[in-house]
Amino acid sequence: MHGGIVSRSPYPERLDLMDFIAVFGSVYEHSPWVAEAVYPSLTPGIDVAPMAKQMRSVVDTASDELKLDLLRAHPDLAGRLSLAELTESSRSEQTDAGLDRCTPEELRDFQELNRVYTEQFGFPFIIAVRGLQRTDILEAFRIRVNNSSNTEFTTAIEQVHRIAKLRLETIINEN
Ligand code: GUN
Fold it and tell me: Does ligand 1 lie within 6 Å of residue 163's CB atom?
């Protein structure tokens, strides 16, 4: 059974694997392998923090190649994809941060920074946008584009973990 009451269950361990993946498979963007790996070790009534920690450890112990795939699974912020093409989580994160209401100048800045950043690092700029304004995001973007590749890889993975925790909180507290 998908959607409805099941998708809002506060008891992840009661879902069968398919339902669990349907609900938690996008906590890490387009990367259901993370949810699948924690499924066997879920404990009754597991809460956000321990579940986030388990998922984080799956990613942290994955190969750099898989981590890179995970980073590359993210869409550009304020990118050319239409809102309809984004995952539900990405769409609401971006609209909550006002990224769908950029001025033409901001849009031009995002597009140029997205281009330079992706060329530099080989993955899109990722930042947990909750609580940030467009100007904060652009400021962080301008700073991070000058980081070394190693620093930026680590920073991006850390931001992905923050985004995942926020997504988990949203799913589990939606009841
Ligand atoms: N930060 C929060 N959500 C997203 C997203 O979907 N893509 C990118 N690049 N950064 C994000």
Answer: yes
Q: What is the pLDDT at residue 124?
A: 97
pLDDT in tens, 54-72: 999 999 999 999 999 999 9
Banded pLDDT at 24 (limits 50, 70, 90): very high
CA 17–ligand 1 middle distance (angstroms): 26
Please give the distance of CA 3 from its chain centroid, rounded to a whole number.
21
Which letter, b or e, does each residue of 78-109 get, where b requires 16 or more Cβ atoms within 10 Å of its Cβ? bbeeeeeebeebbbebbeebbbeebeeebeeb
| CATH code assigned at 119 | 1.10.3330.10
pLDDT confidence tier of residue 4, bands split at 50, 70 and 90: very low
Best residue for ligand 1 mutational test, from 29, 126, 132, 138 (most atoms within 8 Å of Cβ): 126
Q: Helix, strand, coil shares of the chain as percentages rounded to 5?
A: 65, 0, 35
Answer yes or no: is 12 within a domain. no
Q: Is residue 168 part of a domain?
A: no
Inside any domain, residue 137: yes
Which residue is closest in CA terms to ligand 1's atom 4? 90
pLDDT per residue over 78-90, tens digit each?
A: 988 888 899 999 9
